[in-house]
Amino acid sequence: MEQEQNAAIVSLATKSEVPFDKIVILSNKDEAKWDSFERFLKKRMAMISRPSNDIKIHLAQIQSPIDYQSISIETEKWITKLSEESDRLSINLTSGTPAMTTLSVLHGKGKSNTRFVQSSPNNVIEEVEIPLDFGKEYVRSASKNIAHTATSLPQVQKAFSDLTAKSKTMTDVVEKAKRIAASEVPALILGETGTGKELMANAIHKGSLRGDKPIRVVNCGALAENLVDSTLFGHKKGAFTGADKDYAGLFEQANGGTLFLDEVGELKPDIQVKLLRALQQGEITRLGDIKTINVDVRVIAATHQDLTSLIEQGDFREDLFYRLAVGIINMPPLRDRLEDIPVIVEQLTDQINESGSKHPDYVSKKVSENGIKFILSQSWLGNIRELWSTLNRAFLWTDAKLVGEKELSDAIINRRLDEQNNDVRLSFNDKVDIVQLTENYQKKYVEAALKASGNVKKHATQMLGLKDHQTLTNWMKRLGIQNEKEQ
């Protein structure tokens, strides 16, 4: 430019067989000369009647010209953005460092509408054909390495070994999670309280290519509202009272690894916007700062809430939901995993005994056969967490070596389940059989009470709040319920 001569960028722009509608130049040096170069290039384009309005130099957020990680993040961001906006994207391979060229090829080959161009020292333009299929080459290279690790337990198997999965329900979930772990997509883990969502998130992280990188965990529902922004995205010194130094938030701490956002449905709308930006663009901004920071973080979110209902209520962004819900995992409740329960009870029992063994008066215990049957008959609305708490209380309150139905039933916390207060809506011509609806509702609760009580009528009567034993018997006859155990 300073010598009024053309180099690679100008040569490519002016000599390309097909004119470019838009030219994007990335730079991290000589910022004082950017305006001059833009004018220089626009002038050259205008002289040959080519589009010259949309030519812009952008700051490349890289650590150094040979820092592969930051160059990769910036390259992937721009190539993805421009590829989505363009019918055809041409990528210049002449300018920049070898690291920049290499990563431009790697990321560019993954897009269906890209081509590569370069300029020779005498400014001759040529299109470059890259013959390699990087996906196949990677698989071929990795296959050669399998023989060296054939005797080792695969990383993904180790990662999921902490998850008990003997029931078909759970094995299906684990197989799905393994596929998600092998990808780079965000994941959303759904399930009731206590179903093991954090354990699953850790397994997905360990089974991924990021398994040796950090994972950061945060319960969004436990964060004070005024600290959420700072905790996730960091802050600059002086951003608020008490911010006496710069702070790197969890996104920066998890850079290269995984961030697990438990109870993501608790996030407020303004934080949801920043989270969406981090997912879409790989960029965050610290509280009190204007500078953007590039981050490479895989987000795994979890919630026990119905996010679709929150969307309808306006409390959760629909676009954020679809960004998170690429790999969805539904953790089954414990009552749908009956085959897993004996193994889970054994594992929890071992943990309690190991902890108690440090006390000189502790007596090691195990759950009896009738204790297991009792556990299998319960609903466990709090799932594994409730089971764990109940076992701890039962073990604490007895010196017996065998813990059975009596000890476990005494240890279960009684809860009063309130009736759901859902609005009922009917249209003018709708018809319902209100008697049948009521009887179906009663039948389900009577059957559930009988199951939970081990078919002991006396206890089921108390659970249902009925007047006496005979009242329950009359209800059962009316509802057509057979009792396996008359007491």
Automatic annotation (TrEMBL):
Residues 163-396 form the Sigma-54 factor interaction domain. InterPro entries: AAA+_ATPase, AAA_lid_NorR, P-loop_NTPase, Sigma_54_int, Sigma_54_int_dom_ATP-bd_2. Gene3D superfamilies: 1.10.8.60, Homeodomain-like, Hypothetical protein VC1899 like domain (Restriction endonuclease-like), P-loop containing nucleotide triphosphate hydrolases. It holds the Pfam family Sigma54_activat. One of its GO terms (molecular function) is ATP binding. Coiled coil: none annotated. Keywords: ATP-binding, Nucleotide-binding. One of its GO terms (biological process) is regulation of DNA-templated transcription. This is Sigma-54 factor interaction domain-containing protein. It comes from Thalassotalea marina.
